[in-house]
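Hi F.,

I've been meaning to write this up properly since the lab meeting, where we talked about keeping a consistent format for the predictions we share between groups. The idea is simple: the sequence comes first, exactly as it goes in, then the structure tokens exactly as they come out, then a line or two of notes. No screenshots and no reformatting. I'm using this chain as the first example so we have something concrete to point to.
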Amino acid sequence: MTAQISGSNQSPVKITAGCLVVLCSENEFSDTPSAGAATELDEALGGELRKLAVLEKFRSKKGQSLTLTTLGRLPCQRVVLLGMGPTADLATNDLRALAGKATKLASGFGATSLAIVLPPSLAIGTSSAAAAQATTEGALLGGYRFDKYLAEDKRNPSTVTQIEIVAADASAEELNLAFQRGRNTAAAVWRARDLVNSPAADMTPTILAGVAEQIAKEAGLEITVLGLEECRKENMGLFLAVSQGSVEPPRFIHLAYKPKNAVKRVVLVGKGVTFDSGGLSLKPNDGMLDMKVDMAGSAAVISAMAAIAAEKLPVEVHALAACTENMPSGSAYRLGDVLRSKAGKTVEINNTDAEGRLTLADAITYGLGLKPDQIFDFATLTGACVVALGPHIAGVMSNNKALVDAWLDAAKAAGEDMWQLPLPERLQDMLRSEVADMRNTGERWGGALTAGLFLKTFVGETPWVHVDIAGPATSDKDVGHTIKGGTGFAVATILTYLRRLAAA
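Output, unedited:
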């Protein structure tokens, strides 16, 4: 992440930038125009901006853009009007998407500097600080590219290296905090995207553990990485069974941030299957093509830790990731095997492609040993969740109403779509086994729910939230601040939630 962020409250007609983007409300060029930045720029340009808007039928619809080259009449080289749509419906995540589009537009022009002019806070229904943070996140993430495997002549990095956020009615103190949090969030999401987008051969459990060690070194975190023998001593029978089909050794990662003034202890567990073939329950070719992303949960919790430490939040946080490949071989775990978990529960295997819940169960049990006040897990766990909620919404399940309500409020503020799903006890019968304490999968129907029920049996009474990110962990196209490929989903909500917990 190379672009630098700064803020100002100066008049848009005085801003020097390769590209000046003004977020416009619907009435910006109506018969009774608002006294906004676009009107001020139009006056400085002798009415040319309004004429062009009429000619091009610019109506400030959400995402609609209009560009005018200033030809030296203003310090900026180009003015871009970017429609916000109905401001009554505008959310902070709309600002992220608009800012991401602004960065893409500026880069398309070859501009190295970008200024984004925010409307007054009353016009967008949120505080200027929240708007500035969301804009910072969106602008930085809109410049994301994953091109390390492309030839030099095929790479298309963002040209934008300087971004200025113009918020007329925010104090310098508010802006500085907003920029700091926006930068930290974007940097963590950026890193998570890189991890998810990396080919499985270049993001093995050992390599991912090395990344975690580097983060720990940079951020001053404690880290423990358990290898095969250490995991055996921890009695992680479910996790190790998944790993035994691969020649790649497993790694159990434990990152810890322990401030002296901690008000709470939180454990974050991320699914870390760096490649999922399905094991002996082998996936078809198309189902395996994007299985490098099956470690997106671990990417989220590991990447968030650097931002948590940078902000010195008074919350003790532990990030856990049981990292392995799920591969078919003569040593792979088999259908009908009965495995013993770290918690002592036995599990009959009726589908080796339901491996994520096995690795999470042992990781959750390890996490409970840390005596947390709250525990969360994040996993690309079930295709059933995508069927239920589509590709953009994460499914959330919990055993604690107050905790899940606070989590969903944080998700809304962070601009990540999540929806609570139930944990109906009636479906627990689907997991019943005649030879073990339970099976690892139920029947076809309600697959996301039975996966959640499986995990719930290992959590006990500890307040817990399960987040199934199978859909939104990746995107099949560029939209706003989201780039095709790994999205870094859940990082922003983790940080927003912990900031609120620290301030409570």
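Notes:
The CA atoms of residues 70 and 78 lie 6 Å apart.
The two ends are 31 Å apart (CA to CA).

If this format works for you, I'll send the rest the same way.

G.
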